[in-house]
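Attaching the record inline, Q. Sequence:
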Amino acid sequence: MPQSLLKVSDVPEDLNSAGPLGCVNGCAAVTSIEALNQSCHCLSVDLGTLRKCLAEELQSRSLSDAMITTHPHLFSSVPLFVSRSHLEEMAKVISAIETAVASSHFQATALTWAPDIARVDPKSPGGLLGYDFHLVEEGPKLIEINTNPGGMLLNAVLGKAQQSCCRDAAGLALSARVPAAIEDAIVDVFLTEWRLQRGDAPLKSIAIVDETPEQQYLFPEFRLYEQLFRRYGLQATICSPEALNVKDGRLWNEKHAIEFVYNRLTDFALERAGHAALKAAYLGGQAVVSPHPRAHALYADKRNLTLLCSKSFLREAGIGDDTIRLLLSAIPQTQIVTSDNRDLLWRKRKELFFKPAGGFGSKATYRGDKITQRVWEQMKSGVYVAQALVPPSERQVSESQPSKSLKADVRNYAYGGAVKLVAARLYQGQTTNFRTPGGGFAPVFTENV
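Structure, as predicted:
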């Protein structure tokens, strides 16, 4: 589970004793930390202070603070409360998934529906993963896994600003590493990816690559990565894949040789024409690419969830009984939509959530009770999975309007089965969207030890 918890400062000693939890401003005591999500309004993020601290952080890194106005719903106005037991349970689930994915039987099966490029094994995990959970009474439920999850570095900067904004808590701690340690952990992931593919050779240059990067919603995070890499002595740049070319046995961006590509593309198999140079450099070994196509095929393809929630498959893969029980309890039943089961799934649609197998960013995902016959017919042309619906927990955000609440999911940023950071996302609608007033990335509080 996350280490080096940030202790919330200015907590009166008599409120740190064992017993019911509560906030120093007078919240009613509750017997579980998650209950604070329905009753605590006095502990909130001071948005004015947060924006001031965030602006100072950005300016100290020679970055524009314009994102504070251009991204008004990037950071939530309230934190999410998560019990330590739930944090530990999520970490165990992530470790169990790592065990299952490492099995040769799992990999052979997952690669049967993967593109050919995923069969190339660069001998590294493929970068950070985002494990997204909904928290329900019986425990955390894994909704999906994403390669190349956005937000970790933003949450590091946010964490530093939050130290001035999130103080009014008793017996609670921010479930995040010290901001500088988060940055160290991020860089260590990239260096580990490099060493696993290049040994002791020094890494000198890195490019952050995405389609029209300046137009991406999380472009401010790209800039933060660029500055972070430069602080660690790397030549760093941001560019589109079309700006890359291969010559003289190396990958280039204009006059700069590129050794490592931080791949933010959503063309996971590098199939588009404009990505040809990057694909050639990856296949030819001219550059380390992370996340790489194999990582997406083994972790993020939604069809793999059908394997992770199948007792018979996991037993065939040689997975131990304790690990199987953990996976079955944490992963909602998921099945691939086929011509044979479409009629049955349509009848049961109100109990299901439908996702494209290679989807990302909640695009083309549908709650079954919201889906129309027209959309259902259109889905025939794609590959979808149907997952048992797990409604997200909620965070009440207004004491004067008890009915006003936001949905919440919890993202664990992990590498090699080890959690590096936990953050929440608050939202309205079917899926996370960063368009909800009061929503966005939220700090996660848990019990102090």
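Confidence is low (pLDDT under 50) at residues 1-22. The first helix runs from residue 36 to 39.

More tomorrow.
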